Amino acid sequence: MPTGLPPVHAWGAYSVPLSTAIRVWKDGGRRDLDVLLAGRLAVSIAASLSAAERLRGWSSGPVLVVPAPSSRASQRLRGDIPLEGVARLVAAGGAPHRSRPLRVVPALVHTRRVDDQSGLGMLGRRANVDGAMTVKSLCHNVVRGRRCILVDDVMTTGSTMAEASRALREAGAADVLGATVAATRRRPVDHRTGGERGRV
């Protein structure tokens, strides 16, 4: 796992049919799947909140929901930011966390060009996003001293979550957790090539 990876809860494994739904939602323009995926992300966020209450003292107060940033190229290609829309549906839905207000804050932005992560191995993913995120200047006062839940559609190696967590902590976030719709399980890295030996 990459250094700085926060505790992350995922609704399910990144496998068929969930993986198919995520792909067509994100890259195929199927925004009719927003509600379906928001329901699954809501469960992951609720699990993160429950664990935080038991283990990290998150007993009260509002929580910031911070979507992982999309690259500028992806935003241009898709014409929108699908993850942000799903996060806002979760926050507006109330249950299962009515007792704790959720505020969606798209605070993160890339500081340099990043490549599409899907074609990269573990080490390539880490290098691709290392030092590549920051909190927008207008969001520093919003993030400082607050508890944040990072959200993403899929966690593969954890590199994106770790880098996003670093950026939030550097901006003064009090604590950071993660929640995703899905997560992959991967075999160990082949250190001779820097690539992965296959998925579990």
Automatic annotation (TrEMBL):
Source domain of life: Bacteria
Q: What positions does the domain Phosphoribosyltransferase occupy? A: 141-192
The record, for InterPro entries, names: ComF/GntX_DNA_util-trans, PRTase-like, PRTase_dom
A Pfam family name for this chain? Pribosyltran
Q: Which PANTHER family match?
A: DNA UTILIZATION PROTEIN YHGH (PTHR47505:SF1)
Tell me the protein family, please: Belongs to the ComF/GntX family.
Protein name as catalogued: Phosphoribosyltransferase domain-containing protein
Q: Which organism is it from?
A: Intrasporangium oryzae NRRL B-24470
Its lineage opens with: Bacteria, Bacillati, Actinomycetota, Actinomycetes, Micrococcales
